[in-house]
């Protein structure tokens, strides 16, 4: 898990070193420009996802069953928020190592997702009769 966090900075450093060695200062500037473009693209995606999520009530989703079908273990919280177009209702205590979020649809069916380290660990579909608030 910690190795995954080191990969982007190491890749950026390697890119800048290769650009420097191949073309000197112009290469370093081009490599830094490419890295800045990559960061701006990710920032733009983050802002777009958050803008869409702000337009919906917290913890709502169009169809909990479809959300359940589209989830995959290991995706990050931003990806799940992009799928639901809504921020999840936080069920876990503040500062807990495992964060639990819930999304409900109009029929009362809900999906509870557990995240550890920002990655989806497990999720559960709860029908209205079996779901307990």
Describe the structure in your own words.
The protein is of the alpha+beta class and 133 residues long. The chain has 2 domains: 2-53, no CATH class; 57-126, Beta-lactamase Inhibitory Protein, Chain:B, domain 1 (2-Layer Sandwich), CATH 3.30.1450.10. Helices cover 50% and strands 18% of the residues. The protein has helices spanning 2-23, 25-54, 64-70, 77-84, and strands at residues 89-90, 98-104, 110-116, 119-126. Strands 1-2-3-4 form a 4-stranded antiparallel sheet.
The global form is: elongated
Low-confidence stretches: none
DSSP E strands, number = 4
Distance, first to last CA: 32 Å
Average per-residue pLDDT, rounded, comes to 91
Please state the structural category.
alpha+beta
Rounded to an integer, what's the Rg over CA atoms? Answer: 19 Å
Percent helix: 40-55%
Helix segment tally: 4
Main sheet? 4 strands, antiparallel
Per the CATH scheme, the topology name of the largest domain is Beta-lactamase Inhibitory Protein, Chain:B, domain 1
Structurally, the number of domains stands at 2
Element string (H = helix, E = strand): HHHHEEEE
What's the CATH C level of the largest domain?
A: Alpha Beta
Q: In order across it, which strands form the biggest sheet? A: 1-2-3-4
Strand content: 15-25%
CATH architecture label of the largest domain:
2-Layer Sandwich
């Amino acid at each position: 898990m910690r190795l995954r966090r080191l990969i982007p900075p190491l890749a950026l450093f390697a890119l800048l070193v290769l650009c420097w060695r191949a073309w000197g200062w112009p290469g370093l500037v081009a490599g830094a420009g490419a890295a800045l473009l990559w960061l701006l693209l990710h920032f733009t995606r983050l802002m777009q996802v958050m803008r869409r999520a702000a337009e919906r009530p917290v913890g709502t989703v169009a169809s909990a069953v479809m959300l359940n079908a589209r989830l995959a273990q290991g995706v990050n919280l931003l990806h799940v928020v992009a799928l639901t177009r809504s921020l999840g209702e936080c069920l876990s205590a503040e500062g807990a190592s495992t964060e639990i979020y819930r999304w409900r649809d109009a029929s009362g069916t809900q999906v509870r997702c557990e995240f550890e380290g920002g990655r989806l660990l497990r999720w559960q579909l709860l029908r209205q009769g079996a779901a307990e608030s």
